[in-house]
Amino acid sequence: MKIQSHLENLKESIAEIDESISKGLVSKQRTLGFHASAGAVDILEIILHKNRLIDPGFIIKHEWFNSKRKIEEKLNFEFPKKKEILDLVVKIEFVRNSFCYGKRQEEERLEELVFNFNKLKEIFLEVTGYEL
């Protein structure tokens, strides 16, 4: 996928997260789980495309982030703020399934997910220079 398509998808995810915040985190946990995950992967793919580290046909799968070995195998190259970015994506993916498919979570866990996503978004803006 091209950078522009990822940017459009990322903007949609950000809008859904923002709407979930305004409507109440607890009532929108599935939306938060799905869109934080999808947005995190879009952020990573945009950074990798911008640095010409992957081709447009390369697809990052969110389930890779459940395995340190898989991450090292699939993303075995350097890019700006790699450790910070991957740590945040792992944190987001770690809770994804419990938010999307599990029982209702406490608001503090949802706030932590939003915090991690926003931190990832800040790093994205810093390393890419894009505006959202």
Task: Give the SSE layout.
Layout lengths: L2 H21 L5 H22 L17 H7 L7 H20 L5 H22 L4
Give short descriptive properties of this protein:
globular, 132 residues, mainly alpha, 5 helices, 70% helix
What is the terminal-to-terminal distance?
18 Å
Give the biggest beta sheet: none
Helix coverage percent: 55-70%
Class per helix and strand makeup: mainly alpha
Low-confidence stretches: none
Q: Rough shape?
A: globular
Structure, explained:
The protein has 132 residues and is mainly α. Helix content is 70%, strand content 0%. The chain contains 5 helices and no strands. The longest helix is centred in the first third of the chain and has 22 residues. It is globular and about 40 Å long.
Outline of this structure?
The protein has 132 residues and is an all-alpha fold.
